[in-house]
Amino acid sequence: MMSLPFYQRHHEHYDRAYRHKALSSTVSQYQKETKSKSAVYAQGSAAYARGSAAYRHSSAAGFSLDSSAAYSHGSSAYDLESAAYSHGSAAYDSSHGLKNSNLMIEDQSYKMSPKAKRAKQSLISEDKENEALDYSVPIFTGRQVNISGITDTEEERIKESAAYVAKRNLFATGEGVSVSKVAKTTSEEEHHEKKSRKVAIRESAERVAMKKTLEETQAFHRKLNQDKLLHAPEFIIEPRSHTIWEKENVRFNCSVAGWPEPRVTWYKNNVPIDVQAHPGKYIIQSRYGLHSLEITECEFDDTAQYHASAMNVKGEVSVYASLVVKRYKGEIDASLLHGRNLSLSPFAVTPHGYASRFEISFVDKFDVAFGREGETMSLGCTVVINPDIKRFKPDIEWYRNGVLITPSKWVQMQWSGERASLTLTHANKEDEGLYTLRVAMGEYYEEYSGYVFVRDADAEIPGAPGAPLDVQCLDANKDYVIVSWKQPAVDGGNPILGYFIDRCEVGTSHWTQCNENPVKFARFPVTGLIEGRSYIFRVRAVNKAGVSLPSRVSEPVAALDPADRARLRSHPSAPWTGQIIVTEEEPAEGVVPGPPTDLQVIEATKNYVVLSWKPPGQRGHEGIMYFVEKCVAGTEDWQRVNTEIPVKSPRFAVFDLSEGKSYCFRVRCCNSAGIGEPSEATEATVVDDKLDIPKAPGRIMPTRNTDTSVVVTWTEPPDAKELVGYYIESSVEGSGRWEPCNNNPVKGTRFVCHGLSTGEKYIFRVRAVNAAGLSEFSQESEPIEVKAAIAAPSPPYDIVVLESVRDSMVLGWKQPEAIGGTEITGYYVNYREVVDGVPGKWKEANIKAVADRAYRIENLKENMVYQFQVAAANLAGVGAPSKPSKSFKCEEWTIAVPGPPHDVKCTEVRKDSLVLLWKEPVYSGRTPVVGYYVDMKETEAKEERWRSVNEKPLQKKYLKIGGLTQGVSYVFRVRAANQAGVGKPSDVTDAVIAETRPGTKEVVVDVDDNGVISLNFECDQMSPDSKFIWSKNYEPIEDDSRLNIDTKGGKSKLSFKNLGEDDLGIYSCIVTDTDGVSSSYTIDEEEMKRLLALSHERQFPTVPLISELAVEILEKGEVRFWLQAEKLSGNAKANFVFNDKEIFNGEKYKMKVDKNTGLVEMIMDKLEEKDEGTYTFQLQDGKATNQSSLVLIGDVFKKLQDEADFQRKEWHRKQGPHFVDKLGWEVTDECNVMLKCKVANIKKETHIVWYKDDREIMVDEEHDFKDGVCTLLISEFSKKDAGTYEVILKDDRGKDSSELKLKDTAFADLMNEVCRRIALSATDLKIQSTAEGIRLYSYVTYCVEDLRVGWVHNDTQIKFTDRMRTGVTGEQIWLQINEPTPQDKGRYIMELFDGSTTHTKTVDLSGQAFDEAFAEFQRLKQAAIAEKNRARVLGGLPDVVTIQEGKALNLSCTVWGDPTPEVSWLKNEKSFVSDANCILRFESGKNVSFSISTVSTQDSGKYSIVVKNKYGTETSDVTVSVYIPEEERESEQEKKQ
Q: Is pLDDT above 90 for 12?
């Protein structure tokens, strides 16, 4: 049984650190399922043997998934995270016999015991010809995983760890086999004797099988329990190499075992294969431990080395296989073969069979390169190999600082067959160094080198330091690694305070900071790693400005024990033979480990101390961990450093120590059996940096190298330890600004600083670097000017004979290509005789050097053949002589035509033109030279492609040739002509490419302030010996009386004393000792006139004005006079003059001159009568002057004065409440008139009063001024509203008024707008029938007299009569047609005229509309007649009559009707007729009377008169009430009593 270690039992947080919550729950559930599903090793050895045989047969069959049920079931059980021996246990459960065997079944829970028992280990190995190969059978097969690259998710880690822990517990808890030997008792022997021979043989065989099974089981457990069930990856079947044809498919297969399940990654030429990047190209599969890589439709590019890498927590192992893809004959691409680095077949013919020696040269070479971090940089060379053997190709290798470079994600290499290139895909400072290209053909090779500089990327935070570099992982262990790096050269202007180290687990993108506080030492131990996992690291520098960008990440490093890593590398894989060798080993059980040995302090700094020790010899087979203890030196007060978590690695970094104190350390081992004795304590160690910061280097010596580089040497600092390298900095003398020359520390004490400016003086300083930090800067070097070191010139070339006579010859030659950094002082000519083709000894032709490139050699022999050579000389000495010239015969030239011109050269080369110069031939022929012809052709063109540039001979000895094609190379030659003809051409010029080089400058004409005209030329490519050579018309300037030439540094000026016609021409300037720097400027008559005019203007300058003197009125009524000049210097001044008298700044005049803007102004408070006159501003700026005047007299002055007064009043007005917009009017949509104005600068106390014709208008509402608008609404505006309106604002600050006159034209305009709005409000015409006829009408908002209304019938204006009338009733405008007839049908238009526009409304009165309207008219007419003639009571009768009893009652009324109505009376709704008391009369057909002579109470009641005729009946009621007086009533009552 394996129990929990004591440190897990007592420290819960330790268990949490190693077990995720999800992992713990999964483990717990897994253990329960395992116990329920697992069976014991019961009886049944035969069944086990059969299972083992099936398993072995399965393995021998190449891991066939269907060949063994036991194996496949075991794999399935693993995939389902079940017990490792689920099938094996089942086999034992179903076995038969041997129930009396002494196999012990242990069922113990996973608990802590004082001394843990461990199941015996079993070893399953191969047996091939009785030879043990130390090979393990894979017990746990892997789940199906398809991995490209290294990936690891949290879920996979939980499942994997759960499976591992559960299976470890399965074997540790004893749910396996515990074996005790069988003792044969006497009774058993007797019983055995009684058995039959057949039974005895069977039992004997069973015992042998059981013994073998037990031995196999013990060996199996011994193998499994080693390292707690962990197995490093082992390849059982390795992939084999293939050679196939193009377009075929190929598959690499391999099988790997290990626990935890290894991850397998496939590589091509050490680069991981990305399936997603090549869909359909690669198929990677992993099933049951069998892994395959299939490549479909292979191409020639697939020829490569492939390897599979398997990795788990115990290590990593790789196997390799090659793939060769062949092409069919006739389809080979020679260029591809030539461009690939394929090894030659051992039977192939080597290059030596074709050439005894190869000449390898580099063309288009890369130069010193400068880049920045993050950029992509490329280096390349064109390689020319002679002879060129197509079947063989060179070996191309790249080196950085002498170390071979291999392809990676950072570096890519290409070979095209002609050009070798190297690309830095993401440049970092680690890439800085000397790059060397080596091209080898057999045993011959050539190299070319160039330095690459990589500057820091721009910091995200200004002032932050550069990124550290060269991050490496050292001394990696199970949970510990030392990270080292190099300090950056750039600190951002502030000292670096320290560094932060970050780590990231491979397969994730999450970075974790390893240290809380910055560390200054450039090494740092990182702890807390998880065993078996791979990590990458990066480092960031920090100063007070901020944190730098991170460094390039380190190479991945696995957290493994170095011993495990070494063991994995030393154990080769072996093929599976199907045989198992069972060995028996009795491991030590429950052994308390001994003390570690060789404990020592390997590194000590102010921040930490690193301890190292060796594991103890006595430790058993169980893994051990360590506790580290410390105490202050001289005491025995030991304290445990890692009280919570034991360490697994024999390395440990102790932090949190007091700086300056001395400590001793010791280490204890521990395992499940307990804690061992401590090791021997270390000697007292002081907490301080053992490695000191180096001292400053000394003796800084710069020396010249090239035009842009300087060689700097120095001496190593004394007592320097563990130097990483040096940083060099440079500074232009006097600038105070230092720049790094290198960003990757260089070893050695010599460095070439590139990228310097030619001609500048630099100083240098150096500092040393080690892990402790950067030294102080060395002393500054002496200043040195950057220019090429002087060397002897190269040989001249192209020697030609310019003239030959009987005893002398004139030679010409070309200047050496390299003049050695200084000008050539002369040439030396040698000659020798050639007799019958055999040359003699060289003789000196001249003792004193000749300056020209032409020389006459005297005293030669006539008709003798000679060879010549020329050597150039400069301050460094005489250079190597040229190659011997062709053989020339010394004889008299008698030809009539001239000899060849010489010294032909190109200057002023631009992208489309150049100037060709030459000298006249030495031999002119029989007649003088009359002109020259210039020929040209492209460099690569054939000889017949020469063409003449000019048709007519040139008199001058120069020609500007235009029309060139940019980037094309040309050559030129010149021929001289005389009367006899055209002579032989000159020697051909060197090839010239038509291009304008970067930085090319031209001659610039300038006219200074004194009117001096000059030509200026500037050159920034000069050497110390360079000179400016001016010429006119490309001839030396002999008469300099008209010119002045002044040269200072890189600038030269040619000034004209008095430019005139004698100075016309082409002025050119050539800078010697440069790469052809030259330019020219042409001064013709037109240019001369322009320059002279400009000179006069500069000699007598004026101050240019943008605007002349002007005047304007400011807001307060002030008067501003101003003008503006284009430009004024700091010395400019202005004078102000009024009427020829200067005025000055004071109370009345405020004057100002703004020299930045050129604005000159003067401000006056107000204009008075005495200010009328002329104002003048006079300007003076150095020599330049100008003035401007303004006349203010008469009406001009009066108008300006009035405007100033008005503005002044306006300003005062606006200090209180005032009107922004004056009073105005607008007509609303309701056709009302609104008077409105906009006010400002108001407050609560501000009042507003309206007036009309000086009478105040009472306004009901008080305005709140919130919107700044005041309004007065006038409804139904008409003529009565005409008048003058005024509104007044007033408060304690003042008042303001605004007046609006609405009279005459203004009133007419307003009424026109009102009429327009009324006309627009008119509704559509409608038809209405009346008793009189038909009415057409429209409604408007309201109507006014000014709105003129007209009617049109069928396009004819209607004339109004009694029958056709128009009118306005309220808001209705109508047209009445009385007694309409059919002639009234048609289209009617109502015209509303608002004073300027006629608005119309139309209706169609015809057809059905007319018929319906006419019918309705007839009906209404009849109804009106009936209403008119019906009987009715017109009046006279009261409603109620109250009368005293005894009085007389007389009522009368008038009735009407046609015909005359009939009259009748009713009393109380009953018919009533006349009698003596009541008399009813109806007279004249209209007068009706009702009389009662004496009324009584009986006469009270309701009386009704009814009138009736044929048109209708009408009733009128009157109520009669008769009352008795009180006195009479009382008397009557008394009488009754």
A: no
